[in-house]
Write a structure and sequence with these properties.
- The longest helix is centred in the middle third of the chain and has 11 residues, at 40-50.
- It is built from two helices and five strands.
- With 116 residues, the chain is an alpha+beta fold.
- Residues 26-114 form the Acylphosphatase-like domain.
- GO terms for molecular function: acylphosphatase activity.
- Its EC number is 3.6.1.7.
Length: 116
Amino acid sequence: MATSAPADASSPPAPQPQPAEPARKAVRVVVKGRVTGVGFRDWTASTAESLGLAGWVRNRRDGSVEALLSGDPSKIEDMITRRLPVGPPAATVTAVVPSPADPVDPTAGFEIKFTL
């Protein structure tokens, strides 16, 4: 009965397939309505962080709030379609206007920026 030769102990192990990097996307949004002076930036940062998104949020001089949301596409969609249109309790959102943006480093976290 023939036996197979043992594997060469000096050869390196076969490379393991690397997990695919999760899909990432980024969207810049401008939120209009009564969104300044009502805690919208803090609420946005907290909500985005809870969803694992990176990016930033800031007030704009025209009274709107601008944010960059970067991360899992389904989490961004949830933020844009379900969460931002409602906002914190004291806010009254009249529009959420998204536009494409370049993703940011996911380890950057989420920050509140100064008014633009």
